[in-house]
Amino acid sequence: MRSFVLNDFIEYDPQLRVRKPILKVPTVVSEIVCYEPGQSTATHHHPVQDEIWVVLEGHGEIWVGEERLAVEPSSMIFIPAGLRHGLVARQDSRLVLLFIKSPGIPEAVSSAAPSGPGSTASAVLPTPASKLRLEVTDIQTEARDVLQVELRASDGGELPAFEPGAHIAIDLPDGKIRHYSLCNDWRERDRYVLGVARSPQSRGGSLFVHQGLRKGMTVAAAAPRNGFPLDASAERYLFLAGGIGITPILAMIRWCEANGRPWRLAYAVRSAQRGAFLETLSTIGGGSVHLHSDDRESCVFDPIPWLAGAPQGEHVYCCGPAPMMAAIKKAAAHRDPGTVHFEYFNAPTDDAHDGVANRKPFTIELKRSGRSLAVPADKTVLEILEQNGLRVVSSCREGTCRTCETGVCEGTVEHRDYCLTPEEQRESKTMMVCVSRAKSERLVLDI
Ligand code: FES
Known about the structure:
single chain; about 450 residues; mainly beta; Jelly Rolls
């Protein structure tokens, strides 16, 4: 027998939650974790270990699957293997938890569950690459309702490189995955800088960043990806940004300046106070910056004069809200489509694909298990997978973020997303299962 005085393991660190192992034997492991106010454990799951949390001191909030729960001293929570869960200490309270996991075998904490035949937990697909652990090292107000957030590797190491236009997908402590463009210099390897606008339509992501994210917290994130790459062969660049769409554009402008490329920017905002990174833009110099403020000019931004006068060798990069993107698309209809590039952060509201009448049913076959599932006209592939116990990692659920990208082995895809390039859509090696459908009667997916 062994006995322990739990109070001896309690220790806090203002920078990071403190984990102190207590016991580790083949059948069970246990540890004490101490959180300062606002510190958190990001969403994760244990593929084979059941877990028990006992709250020894303090208050916080936990989420297990879809369920959220306030916890207080003496609470005990059981989390079965495979269920995604996370926790945050209340802003006004420290929190001390005793964790007990069984079996006690060594196991990597993962954001993915096992997949394929024989899995006991429901599968999470596609399997994400191993995540980065990032610490929030600075948060500043950049403009009205816009925060600038700086993230660094929590171990102080070098971060994976990124290109102008790239974004990172962050696991927020409430279990959601959100994508944020990187706006700092692509040559910096010690930090990622994001601009995050508070969205009135927030489904939790921007609201959490504005209200819950604090300096010192750690978050998990996937390595940067670039769905909005800059064509380095262009002679010159026209950037059209709306609202928080300035973030990937800012990184592109830094690249233009470093490489001596001519550029011009039209930046549309609802009011001048909402214009983010204006000071940074003024110090970058080089190209011309036109700020359009709806309230000052009593009208929305008109892209026609900008595109009418754009020489053919100029590549156009656009990122902004859906109505602005639709207006730009219309105004750019006369141009070579290969010279006009879009990054959507929400799907157009006038999508011609919308409406069940435009959809037909089809069948998906899951290559790894051999299962066949019918996808009716009024359901998406993602919904059908979820209904059948296959939990797919998703975020926007409207074809803009690329989180649910899934391999396609056979069949013809009807791409309805806003994130694959025209070339990727032609190749059809993958599809966004949240929106895309099949032109053929059957699709074989790499699941
Ligand atoms: S969940 Fe964002 S593209 Fe499917």
